[in-house]
Amino acid sequence: MNKFKKILMFLLILTKQELYSMESTDWICGPQRYEKKNVEQIRVNGFVELDLTNVTKEILVNGYLRALNSTLGNIQVNGRAILVNSLVKGITNINGSLEAETTQFENTVFIASQVALLDGCLLPRLVIKPVDNNQGIQRINLNGNTQISGDVIVESGRGEIIIENGSEIFGIVNGASIIKK
């Protein structure tokens, strides 16, 4: 019986070590909230809310991301993303809707969506990817003094960029018409 206990303890310790080592790469399912946290990576299937949170490497979400007052590395969202008063240091990939307000993007923003809203944002380059099985117009609203320092490319060739309230694009626009209001 003593030998059995030793083997059992060994297996429990081994299992616990494996769980800890897999923790950073596993996906979490269900709603998650991070407040005043510093994390390296987040991978969630479901809803994620960040407030005053720093994600140093990447955030991957299949579902819905809401980030408030946060600093993020690379972003990959398949679903909906709302970013408010945040800084994105890495590349942004959104397959779904994006609403960003007073957010600064330091690298290219890629969006595959029919509609996106950027209000009071700064970004170096915007690429709008085609949406599968959709032949409609891809509409991007730039509002509240949003500044795009580089090019805007709408790969489908069916883009419409609505520029309002002091917003500007300093690069070339390709694949979209521009409507100034």
Structure write-up:
The protein has a 16-stranded parallel β-sheet that branches. Strands 11-14-17 form a three-stranded parallel β-sheet, with no helix packed on it. Helices cover 12% and strands 57% of the residues. The chain is globular. The protein has one helix at 2-22, and strands spanning 28-29, 32-35, 38-51, 54-68, 71-84, 87-88, 92-101, 104-105, 109-112, 115-119, 122-123, 126-129, 138-143, 147-148, 152-154, 159-163, 168-169, 173-174, 176-180. It is built from one helix and 19 strands. 28% of the residues are buried. The protein is mainly beta.
Summarize the SSE layout with pairings:
Elements: H1 2-22, E1 28-29, E2 32-35, E3 38-51, E4 54-68, E5 71-84, E6 87-88, E7 92-101, E8 104-105, E9 109-112, E10 115-119, E11 122-123, E12 126-129, E13 138-143, E14 147-148, E15 152-154, E16 159-163, E17 168-169, E18 173-174, E19 176-180
Parallel strand pairs: 1-3, 2-3, 3-4, 4-5, 5-6, 5-7, 6-8, 7-9, 7-10, 9-12, 10-13, 11-14, 12-15, 13-16, 14-17, 15-18, 16-19
